[in-house]
Amino acid sequence: MKAFLRRFGLLFVVAGVVILAYSEFQKLESNALLVWSGGLIVGGLLLYIIMSTIIEK
């Protein structure tokens, strides 16, 4: 369970990359998906760093 929680942020990063790829392949003109995907990627990286330092102790 600890291993899953340490890597929980990576799920958000992958979700952000999937949304970014979807918006690119569909040639969407809206920036809303870009903002969501960027937020998920940055938030996932921060969550990964925070959770890995908390659980490591």
Characterize the structure shown.
It is a single chain. The protein has 57 residues and is an all-alpha fold. It has one domain.
Secondary structure: number of strands = 0
Number of helices: 3
Order of helices and strands: HHH
Instruction: Describe the sheet with the most strands.
Output: none
Helical content band: over 70%
Indicate the multimeric state: single chain
Q: How many domains comprise the coordinates?
A: 1
Mean pLDDT over the full residue set = 89
The helix-and-strand class reads mainly alpha
Query: What is the terminal-to-terminal distance?
Result: 15 Å
Q: What's the overall geometry?
A: elongated
Radius of gyration: 13 Å
Hey, roughly how much beta strand do the residues contain? under 5%
Parts with pLDDT < 50 across at least 5 consecutive residues: none
Characteristic terms for this protein:
mainly alpha; 84% helix
Could you give a quick summary of the protein structure above?
This protein is 84% helix and 0% strand. It is mainly α and 57 residues long.
Break the fold down into its secondary structure elements and pairings.
Blueprint: H1 2-6, H2 8-25, H3 32-56
